[in-house]
Amino acid sequence: xxxxxxxxxxxxxxxxxxxxxxxxxxxxxxxxxxxxxxxxxxxxxxxxxxxxxxxxxxxxxxxxxxxxxxxxxxxxxxxxxxxxxxxxxxxxxxxxxxxxxxxxxxxxxxxxxxxxxxxxxxxxxxxxxxxxxxxxxxxxxxxxxxxxxxxxxxx
Amino acid sequence: xxxxxxxxxxxxxxxxxxxxxxxxxxxxxxxxxxxxxxxxxxxxxxxxxxxxxxxxxxxxxxxxxxxxxxxxxxxxxxxxxxxxxxxxxxxxxxxxxxxxxxxxxxxxxxxxxxxxxxxxxxxxxxxx
Lengths: 155, 128
What we know:
The complex is a heterodimer of chains A (155) and B (128).
Chain A lengths: L1 E7 L2 E15 L8 H13 L3 H21 E10 L3 E10 L5 H4 L9 H5 L7 H8 L2 E7 L3 E9 L3
Antiparallel strand pairs in A: 1-2, 2-3, 3-4, 4-6, 5-6
Chain B lengths: L2 H7 L3 E2 L12 E4 L3 H7 L4 E5 L4 H9 L4 E4 L7 H9 L4 E3 L4 H10 L14 E6 L1
Parallel strand pairs in B: 2-3, 3-4, 4-5
Antiparallel strand pairs in B: 1-5
């Protein structure tokens, strides 16, 4: 944990900030979920409320599963301040040709073996959206996708 | 409804260690699609499912699900059971079908709870 200085209107307020990074491996279904599990443990240690933890864990897990299903490798970075949790999941994958379509509930390009595991029913991105206060998706076909979501701890 | 009641109603076997026998749930949700569980279940519920892979435990962990019943005698691998114990999620196995499992629990008063989560207020997308 380290301290974060916020400067504004001549007043210095000292808050806390914690950040970290997890690496993700594509097609590794044994470890899939470990990063989100670790992030959840960090939030529990800090004492974030159950509702916020659940929303963050679900959004992070959906994003992590997307990397494991579709990409070669990726990483999950998080940053927790007094007011919000922001999570960035970046991958080296195939990219998303049409993000608006991917945001549609039920739209999926997942192969059958992923569906047999109970995933890939086209609810991933819509569910990240449902659980976050702010979501941005940047994707380049053939290079990869960067997804960032923010969940506010305090209004 | 507590774990022992659920076990008796479903003539189920508890396959995780006995330390978790005191757990109880407020509601139930059933699905084989983990995507649906992540989207529509609520915290502190019982998950009834026919899927037995490790992702079911991960899903339950993220969705704050307190207990899992596997239907039709489906038993997860030892590795999956160990993961559930590590996460303090008790697992039960019943020989009943999904329909009969839900029906029996409903008959004894267990109900579902609907999820209500708003959409992200700001969404930005960039394609290249």
